[in-house]
Amino acid sequence: xxxxxxxxxxxxxxxxxxxxxxxxxxQPAVDRVSFSIKAGSTVGLVGASGAGKSxxxxxxxxxxxxxxxxxxxxxxxxxxxxxxxxxTARQSIQMVFQDPSVSLSPKRTVEQTLMEPLQHFEIxxxxxxxxxxxxxxxxxxxxQSAMHRYPHQFSxxxxxxxxxxxALVTDPxxxxxxxxxxxxxxxxxxxxxxxxxxxxxxxxxxxxxxxxDLAVIRQIASEVAVLYRGQLLEQSPADRxxxxxxxPYSKTLLSFAxxxxxxxxxxxxxxxxxxxxxxxxxSACVFAAFCPDKLPKCESTEPxxxxxxxxxxxxxxxxxxxxxxxxxxxxxxx
Length: 334
Known about the structure:
- The protein is of the alpha/beta class.
- The chain has helices at 53-60, 83-92, 100-103, 110-120, 129-139, 156-168, 186-203, 214-220, 238-243, 248-257, 324-333; strands at 13-20, 30-37, 42-46, 68-73, 76-77, 93-96, 174-178, 206-211, 223-228, 231-237, 305-307, 320-322.
- The strands form 2 sheets. Strands 6-7-8-3-9-10-12-11 form an 8-stranded mixed β-sheet, with helices on both faces. The protein has a 4-stranded antiparallel β-sheet with strand order 2-1-4-5, covered by helices on one side.
- 41% of the residues are buried.
């Protein structure tokens, strides 16, 4: 994952300074978030419940309108697209939701479920669509016998395979998986994650994989972005994130994921939630109240995003962090 301005191949998806507020007078659910995703990669978007992860996904699909910022898909601003162009973009950006028992209509057979997006996006014709649906169903590991059955007749893992098939049937380039394995038991989770990895290898699909479960992210993601109280605090290659996390919040998340209490931590894990933040609160680090490593200025001055390699503000690299600790390191280095 790279931030805007990265030199190299143009990203498939680019999010620039995205902000989204659901209730007037409240803190934004998404607060000036920027990141991008290269084609063929899997970016894991992590954070505790309420961090803003699902809100980012819904804004990308234009299911909700952001207050400000830009979302570029293949270089084009989704927010400025006319209805026809937006429909085309949505065909290429599909989503898999957390609970398939809710996201799948109980009144539709599997065939009807898979035919609906084909008809909506005018893909193929009446003769070719059933074969397309069957082909995708086989891709996710189900056979023709499933076509005329209803969701309640399948296990939870099979239901999620059907939900993935529904997303795949439009031949998307980007698949957003929003807690797609959170409602499944561990053995079924593993099967679905293997399926997603197989799809990426065979079909070249790009994934934005949203999860609060770091074990899942470790298995599937090539890059990690960390949200807290609506803000992006760190972004890093996955191997670097899990071996050398930079932000104190990232370190805290990883400690709790291992069943450990972080050094210097005085709260409990529920303090990792976004919670409420007064709108008149001074501009500061959003994690300052609970940070075991905070500096005096953390409570009064919002940090910039730093590239750990270059030490420059707003200049991104393989690992970037929004933290005054790196401001201090960089100033001492220079």
